[in-house]
Amino acid sequence: MSLLKSLTYREDFDTALEYLSKVETKYAPKFNLVTAPQQLRDLMYWAYMPRSAERSNYLNTFAAQCWEVPDGEAEVLLAKDHLNAIRYVNRFLREANRKLKDGGYLAVAFDTAMKRRLQYYSKYPRWLANILYSFDFLWHRVFPRLWITRRFYYLCTKKVRKVFPRPEVLGRLYYCGFEVVSEQYIHDRYCVIARKVQEPDTERRHYGIIVKLKRIGKNGKPFLVYKFRTMYAYAEYLQTYVYNNNSLQVGGKFKDDYRITDWGRVMRKLWMDELPMFFNVLKGQMKLIGVRPLSNQYYELYDPEVREKRIKCKPGMLPPYYADMPETLQEIQESEMRYLEAYEKHPFRTNWKYFWKIIGNIVFRRKRSQ
Predict the structure, then answer these.
(1) Whether 99 and 133 share a structural domain
(2) Integer Cα distance of 304 and 302 in angstroms
(3) Is there a smaller number of Cβ atoms within 10 Å at the N or the C end of the chain?
(4) Which 3 state secondary structure label does DSSP give 178?
(5) Between these two residues, 249 and 186, which has the higher pLDDT value?
(6) Are the CB atoms for 62 and 89 separated by under 8 Å?
(7) Residues 254 and 281 in one domain
(8) pLDDT tops 70 at residue 49
(9) Neighbours of 368 (CB within 10 A)
C-alpha cells in the first residue's frame, strides 16, 4: 500500500497527519536538548507549548532579536517565517550560515509536500482531489522553479506558498553548510534543527531532468556522470545522512530511501535513469561493462584493497552486481573483486562473459536492483 493510500484511509486530516508525522520521522534523528545551549532549550520549550498569543509573541520576538547579532557570533537562529514563504531559500540559509558561529544552531519550519497533498485528499473526493492537487503542484512547485514561469508566479502570487519535499529542504541545509541534528513535527508543521559545520557549497545547482553527479573514475579521478533525475533536488547531499540513519538493505542500497521520487522508482525499475550514461561512454570516461561508478561517500565504505583495485580501470554501465546479484556490501565487494581480477587477466573474454550473464539476468530472469 502506498503512503498516499495509507494516509487517505484515515478518517480525517488530524488522524492522517498524526500517521504522517510517524512515517516522515521514522528515521529522523532526535537531538538531545540536555546538552544544547540554554538559548536553544528555551526556544524549544516555547515551541512545544500550545498555540497562544503569548507563544507567538515569544517566537516572533526571539526571531527578530537573534538576527541582530553580528555575523559569526550568533549561537541560535530562528527563521522569521516558514520556508514555504521565503522566496530565496538558499540565500536565506547562506545568510544564516554567515550569522552563526561555528557549531551554532538554526531552527526552521515548513509544510512538507506530503502534508500539502494530504490537505487535498483528506478534504475532497479522490477524483476532485486529483484535479485540485495537480493544479496546486504545477502552480506552487513547478512554476517557481522554471525560469520561463518564475517571474509570472511571483507577479501573480501575493503570498508565496512554494512546496518543498522534505528531502529537498534537508539537502538544501547540507548544501548550505549545515548538519541536521533533529527532525520532528511540532503541532502541524515540520521542524528541523541544524548545526553549522562548514561554509556553504559554491557549486550551482540545477533542476533539469538530466543531472550530473560527481563519481570516482579511473585512477581515482572524479568525473560527472549523466543520469535522468530520479531523486528530489539537493538529495545527493544527503547520502551520508541517509546512511547514518537508515543503514543499508539487501543489495547494498539504502533502506527506505525517501530521496527517490515516485517517478524515479518507475524509471529505475525500467533502467531508464541510466540511459544518459552513454554520453560518459562516448566521452571515454566509462565502458559498457565494469564496476559501478560510486560517489565518494559510498566509495569510502569499501575496504581499502577493493578501493585500490577499483580505480585501476574505468567504471561501467552494466556492473557485475547484475551477474551475481549479491545481497550485502561485503558480497558486493567480493563480486566486484572477482570481476576485476578476471578482467586484469582477460579483459575481452571477461566482459563478453559478464555481458551475456547480465543480459540474461535482467531480460529473462527480471533481476533488478532494489
Answers:
(1) yes
(2) 6
(3) N
(4) strand
(5) 186
(6) no
(7) yes
(8) yes
(9) 14
Report residue 284's pLDDT band, with 50, 70 and 90 as the boundaries: very high
**Cα(42)–Cα(105) distance, integer angstroms:** 13
Contacts of 218 (CB under 8 A, 6+ apart): 311, 312, 313, 314, 315
Q: How far is 38 from 25, CA to CA, in rounded Å?
A: 25
pLDDT at residue 221 greater than cutoff 90:
yes
Domain boundary among 161, 196, 231: 196
Which of 142, 161, 196 terminates a domain? The answer is 196
Distances in whole angstroms, Cα of residue 199 to Cα of each of 98, 174, 324: 8, 10, 42
CATH code (residue 71): 3.40.50
Q: Give the structural domain span for 70.
A: 3-196
Count of beta carbons in the 10 Å neighbourhood of residue 60 = 12
Range 2-11, long-range pairs (CB < 8 A, 24+ positions): 3/114, 4/117, 4/121, 7/114, 7/118, 7/121, 7/122, 8/118, 8/121, 8/122, 8/126, 10/122
CA distances from 53 to 49, 66, 172, 266 (A): 11, 20, 32, 47
pTM, two decimal places: 0.84
Please give the torsion angle defined by the CA atoms of residues 245, 172, 13 and 124, in that order, rounded to the nearest 10 degrees. -130
- HSE-up of residue 329 (Cα within 13 Å, Cβ side): 14
Torsion of CA 219, 221, 224, 226, to 10 degrees: 10
Overall number of domains in the chain: 2
Q: DSSP 3-state assignment of 143? A: coil
In whole numbers, what is the pLDDT of the chain averaged over residues? 88
In the structure grid, which three cell numbers stand for residue 250, read together?
539487501
Residue 286 is given by DSSP the state: -
Angle at 299 between CA 169 and CA 302, to 5 degrees: 130
Q: Checking DSSP bridges between strand 210-216 and strand 222-228, what pairing results, if any?
A: antiparallel
Could you report the per-residue pLDDT of 175-215, keeping only the tens digit for each? 999 999 999 999 889 999 999 999 999 877 777 788 888 99
333 pLDDT more than 90: yes
